[in-house]
Design a protein that fits this description.
- By secondary structure, the protein is an alpha+beta fold.
- It has seven helices and seven strands.
- The chain has helices spanning 2-43, 49-80, 92-107, 128-145, 163-167, 192-197, 215-225; strands at residues 88-90, 111-116, 124-126, 150-161, 176-185, 229-235, 239-247.
- Strands 2-4-5-7-6 form a five-stranded mixed β-sheet. A two-stranded antiparallel ribbon has the order 1-3.
- A hairpin with a 3-residue loop joins strand 6 and strand 7.
- Helix 1 packs antiparallel against helix 2, helix 3 packs parallel to helix 4 (128-145) and helix 4 (128-145) runs antiparallel to helix 7.
- The longest helix is centred in the N-terminal third of the chain and has 42 residues, at 2-43.
- Bound molecules: adenosine-5'-diphosphate.
- Adenosine-5'-diphosphate (ADP) binds next to helix 4 and helix 7.
- This is histidine kinase.
- Residues 20-250 form the Histidine kinase domain.
């Protein structure tokens, strides 16, 4: 409980920092974009041709960069939760089918992907694009844990968290009906010391430049904000299973596509 509290505090602090910076940065970007547009209009009245061409190229490059920066701040804002989650009723098996191609290409040729759906699966109440982001993060971790190949299994199911189980959790969720998604790899696994720290923001065992240490803390933050629960089982040299429990939605899943973001660029 002590560790969970420390981790929640750290996450909160990071959220505040990223949210604050992203917010101010975004204001600056608005100024920059406005300036670029004015320059663009002025350029139209420049008469020297070679200079005009150069300036227009520079203007368009800067505009492009500013747009990309705006996308980045949107991600930061989403991460810090200045932007609220947008939960809906999701058909999780369908979401996984829609993600299949993306997952296969993320995992590469050495890793076999197996998705085990559940015919009577309840619908989930969560933010679809955040859930997709979380599953991708977990798939990337699994890939990194299987440098020589292996198998990634994603299995869904209906579950009931009972009072005893809920009471044993460091941060209790209400007892009741949940949809479980279990993501298992046959990779290198984790020792106890690593396992104890995985949800800590910036904790990573990967070499510099490869890991940010934010993947699992993001997953954790998303699941907790969705009133769900996440648990990791791992054994060195055998593999890892991440179990995510998300609350059952009482409504039918929305008919439209579950995915709403192209996500290869959204990783970490
Ligand atoms: P990152 O992947 O950037 O290191 P994460 O928060 O996603 O950040 O993961 C933190 C650490 O947890 C990883 O560096 C790794 O040591 C461990 N880890 C996460 N997922 C797995 C996995 N599937 N198998 C083995 N170790 C894992």
């Amino acid at each position: 409980a002590e560790a969970a509290l420390r981790q929640a505090q750290k996450l909160e602090a990071i959220g505040q920092l990223t949210g604050g910076v992203a917010h101010d940065f975004n204001n600056l970007l608005t100024v920059i974009m406005g300036g670029l547009e004015t320059i663009g209009r002025q350029l139209a009245s420049t008469s020297e041709l070679p200079q005009l061409a150069r300036l227009m190229r520079a203007q368009s490059m800067a505009h492009h960069a500013a747009q990309r920066a705006a996308t980045l701040t949107a991600r930061l804002l989403a991460f810090s939760r200045r932007q609220p989650l947008n939960p809906n009723s999701i058909d999780l098996d369908r979401l996984l089918r829609e993600m299949q191609e993306l997952l296969t290409s993320t995992l590469g040729e050495q890793i076999r992907l197996e998705i085990v759906g559940n015919a009577g699966l309840w619908s989930v109440f969560a933010d679809a694009s955040e859930l997709e982001h979380a599953i991708l993060n977990l798939a990337v971790n699994a890939r990194d844990a299987m440098p020589n190949g292996g198998r990634l299994t994603i299995e869904t199911g209906n579950t009931w968290l009972d009072d005893d189980y809920v009471a044993s959790l460091p941060e209790p969720v209400p007892p009741g009906q949940y949809v479980l998604v279990a993501i298992s790899d046959t990779g290198i696994g984790m020792d106890k010391v690593t396992l104890d720290r995985v949800f800590e923001p910036f904790f990573t065992t990967k070499e510099t430049g490869k890991g940010t240490g934010l993947g699992l803390s993001q997953v954790y933050g998303f699941v907790r904000q969705s009133n769900g629960h996440v648990k990791i089982y791992s054994e060195p040299a055998h593999g890892t299973t991440v179990k995510i429990y998300l609350p059952r939605s009482q409504a039918e899943p929305d008919r439209q596509e579950q995915r709403n973001t192209p996500s290869a660029t959204m990783l970490k």
